[in-house]
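INFO batch 0412 | record 1 of 1 | parsing
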Amino acid sequence: MPDILLHDIVAALGGELHGDDNTRIDSLAPLDSAGPGALSFVSHPKYRQGLAICKASCVIVPPDLKDTALARGPCIVSDAPYLYFARLTQWWRKAMDAQRAPLGRQGGVHPTAVVDASAQVHPSATVGPLCVVERGARIGALSQLRARVTVGEDCKIGERCLLHSGVVIGADGFGFAPDGDRWEKIEQLGAVAIGDDVEIGANTCIDRGALQDTVIEDGVKLDNLIQVGHNVRIGRNTAIAGCAGIAGSAVIGPQCTIGGGAIVLGHLEIAAHVHISAGTLVSKSISKPGHYTGIFPLDDNASWERNAASLKQLHRLRERIKQLESDVKK
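INFO prediction complete | emitting tokens
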């Protein structure tokens, strides 16, 4: 475990420390399970009661929870505790890796990985066990490919990217032309271009473009088990949660969020700063920033079927009401 003092953390990350700066921290933990030696955080007043009884050696809190935190022990006050904690986890990881040297991430290609002779892997990049990097692919500086990642031919990964286990970059997009009762394959001649500081979760698949590249811009964060179709473009710093599906040629703007299990149909355009709720089906383009939801409420099955049947009648009822209003005016 890292041998860390509160002084070390505040010196690296800032914040307003109250309490003994020589307090030793040996772990990071959630508020409800943190014990002596742990550092936790709380960002919302609704957790005030939990904060009061928390046993952590120190808690990161916003200014309005300072007094509650001080009543129980040391605290670090920050205007953005959740962001502070996120940066703390990064700092903590580096501290752990430094103590684990030479087992820390040093860059290089694992002996079981297969890298084509024409591929370019930056010396500071890490290619993990059983990865495959195909012909003409490029892996940028300080990027990490965890176990069993596949990067298809001519695909590009920018700098400081993290691809978790099982990610597939550059499989063929789903393109077939009907020929009577059979399908004729459309060769996928584009690739995938991924920018800098992108993180892609386990078993997520990003298909290569048909003629032009599928593009994932800088700072995008993708969760596990996401399907990104061919020729999709995802704008800077957009974040998409697990099991979402983005169909071919959709364009998603920068600074968007898409909830888990959401579906975006093909050839649609979504503006910047659009936030889509989990489970939503996006069936038309969205041109204005905002929060959008399209979920039929959960109910017991019998009630759900009755409501669904009623929905099918809404257009007919609307037309009848319009006719009645017209008759009344006459």
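INFO post-check: Residues 81-100 form the longest helix (20 residues).
INFO record closed
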